[in-house]
Amino acid sequence: MLAKQLLFLSSLIPLLQAQETVLGVYIFHRHGDRTTKNWPPTSLTDLGYYQVFEAGNFYRNRYIDANASSQIFGISPDLVQNSQLNVQAPVDTVLQNSAAGFLQGLYPPVGATLGTQKLANGTSVEAPLGGFQLIPVNAVASASSGANSENSQWLQGQSGCNNAIISSNNYFFSQEYLTELNKTMGFYHSVEPVINGTFSLAQDNFKNAYLIYDLVHVSMIHNASIPSDNLLTPETVFQLQTLADNHEFNLAYNASEPIRAIAGSTLAAQIVQQLNATITGKSTSQIGIQFGAYNSFLSFFGLAQLPAVSVNFTGIVDYASSMTFELVTNATVTNTSYPSDDDISVRFLFSNGTSAEHPLTAYPLFGQSETVIPWNTFVDQMNAFAVGNQADWCSQCGNSTGVCASTTSTSTGSSTSPTSSTSSSGGISKAVAGVIGAMVTLAVILGAEALILLLAGLRVVSKKRFGNRASPESASVVAKA
Ligand SMILES: *[C@@H]1O[C@H](CO)[C@@H](O)[C@H](O)[C@H]1NC(C)=O
Ligand SMILES: *[C@@H]1O[C@H](CO)[C@@H](O)[C@H](O)[C@H]1NC(C)=O
Ligand SMILES: *[C@@H]1O[C@H](CO)[C@@H](O)[C@H](O)[C@H]1NC(C)=O
Ligand SMILES: *[C@@H]1O[C@H](CO)[C@@H](O)[C@H](O)[C@H]1NC(C)=O
Ligand SMILES: *[C@@H]1O[C@H](CO)[C@@H](O)[C@H](O)[C@H]1NC(C)=O
Ligand SMILES: *[C@@H]1O[C@H](CO)[C@@H](O)[C@H](O)[C@H]1NC(C)=O
Ligand SMILES: *[C@@H]1O[C@H](CO)[C@@H](O)[C@H](O)[C@H]1NC(C)=O
Ligand SMILES: *[C@@H]1O[C@H](CO)[C@@H](O)[C@H](O)[C@H]1NC(C)=O
Ligand SMILES: *[C@@H]1O[C@H](CO)[C@@H](O)[C@H](O)[C@H]1NC(C)=O
Ligand SMILES: *[C@@H]1O[C@H](CO)[C@@H](O)[C@H](O)[C@H]1NC(C)=O
Ligand SMILES: *[C@@H]1O[C@H](CO)[C@@H](O)[C@H](O)[C@H]1NC(C)=O
Ligand SMILES: *[C@@H]1O[C@H](CO)[C@@H](O)[C@H](O)[C@H]1NC(C)=O
Description:
Layout: H1 2-16, E1 21-29, H2 46-64, E2 85-88, H3 93-106, H4 111-114, E3 116-118, E4 124-126, H5 128-131, H6 162-170, H7 175-183, H8 185-190, H9 192-195, H10 209-222, H11 234-252, H12 262-280, E5 287-291, H13 294-303, E6 322-329, E7 344-351, E8 361-362, E9 372-374, H14 375-383, H15 390-397, H16 430-433, H17 438-461, H18 472-479
Parallel strand pairs: 1-5, 2-5
Antiparallel strand pairs: 1-6, 3-4, 6-7, 7-8, 7-9
Helix pairs in contact: 2-3, 10-11, 11-13, 12-13, 17-18
Residues 193, 196-197, 228 line the site of one 2-acetamido-2-deoxy-beta-D-glucopyranose.
Organism: Hyaloscypha variabilis (strain UAMH 11265 / GT02V1 / F)
Family: Belongs to the histidine acid phosphatase family.
Transmembrane segments: 431-456
């Protein structure tokens, strides 16, 4: 009898459960399939365009469409409201175009009915391309996206962070690296006939692990014929990939030298800022999207302790991968009642490849067991490694010239020792957060671009010098995608 009643009661529980509402999301996305890094200019391929377009469509069906499985509170379902979106991508054709392709899937053309506007004289004008919608990338969304939104653009990758560059370069002197370099000489030479059109024997080693893997990987997707491809057994390709994973993860993250993961630290700050803006604006700016490089994924994975969940998180993520932070609540949400911070949580999800084909799966962050964690906990954990303003960045990076000249008087981080940065890994300093001006922002962007161009230029003219330390990997440390 009692058992029956319990059974009856438990059958009611699902009905009593609150409906979960998504208040906003932050999506960090890798570009789609592209041509090889070895032969610039690198460009997004049609396959890559499809991958990001379909990912955009996947997210549309999850968060935006009137029938979406978890429609975001207050989101405009068909006609884009640009104030609701904050889309960022570095000035890089592969990433910019990936963002554009993704947005086409997120907000597709609306057709003649919705896509038509009426003029004063009564004439109707339909938007080109069947009601195609224009969505700016890198525009600051709206006032509600927070006082800090204008500084988000300088927070891209390592952007010339001195201590991070030193730390990454130190990898090439580490015992781990030297052992691997020695151990794999024979293996790399065994694939020389496959890659000898691009890499000389002297360049054909673990130092170029990523570029070699990239050449083989891209060629296997695009080249109808590859010299000596009989050497490319699944085991060999897997080993080339695993060695590249090892090389790139170590460049992106080292537990003893957190500054190496600056790309993940700045990303963490951007995520918190955007989600916080969603909350403070009561879901008027609900979606943050950023396209970025795989090293930002790896740096973030390391900082968020995801390798403890699975060693998979030490591997380079596939093209068009995405990680998504959902701001969710079980409290009632209406126009007039918005949940308090205590009722809001964050869910982390990751899709290894275009989300149209690879499941978007929830994983626990920060060594916790739950995949949904309270907002306040999330903020504390993220702020333990987030770097979200100019002064903090300058101090942790040990930069004291250029844009950092004015901020160093109060900082202690001018030492070039990468380890000195660990002592002051604070969160976002509120005092300075609001005062970073557009001039500063612009100066940093220009500085970072100049650096990238300089390294890219160096790379173009010195292809034969793969073997020395000013080689393309150091460029890819700064601008890898
Ligand atoms: C939502 O689903 C209904 C029923 O399946 C369908 O009639 C309607 O067209 C869909 N609306 C959108 C916007 O997809
Ligand atoms: C209405 O105004 C538009 C834009 O100025 C013009 O192109 C169009 O010819 C006008 N239509 C009429 C009927 O005057
Ligand atoms: C930081 O310092 C390094 C080394 O001095 C320099 O190359 C880089 O351009 C600086 N970055 C910025 C943003 O000033
Ligand atoms: C990680 O950092 C530690 C401390 O600086 C260093 O001893 C070690 O070699 C580094 N490992 C790698 C793979 O860079
Ligand atoms: C690797 O290191 C061992 C021991 O130091 C040395 O004998 C060997 O020649 C090295 N192999 C290569 C390929 O450099
Ligand atoms: C690459 O190696 C193959 C096989 O050893 C050889 O036939 C070919 O000429 C080499 N190509 C170049 C560009 O050196
Ligand atoms: C694949 O084709 C490209 C373009 O023709 C060429 O540059 C590249 O070397 C080829 N890949 C291999 C492994 O031969
Ligand atoms: C969120 O934004 C508000 C208003 O800008 C600010 O006061 C607050 O400190 C921010 N909270 C977090 C967790 O960043
Ligand atoms: C790790 O990757 C393997 C192979 O793709 C997969 O089978 C496994 O489920 C993954 N583990 C996690 C925790 O995602
Ligand atoms: C993603 O897939 C690649 C294989 O293509 C694998 O090496 C990597 O570990 C995977 N990452 C995750 C987080 O599952
Ligand atoms: C909402 O309730 C369901 C069922 O108890 C739970 O699985 C989910 O994690 C809750 N979501 C939040 C944001 O607390
Ligand atoms: C609540 O939002 C809906 C949809 O945006 C709108 O139609 C309605 O007028 C709003 N109600 C209030 C009280 O603001």
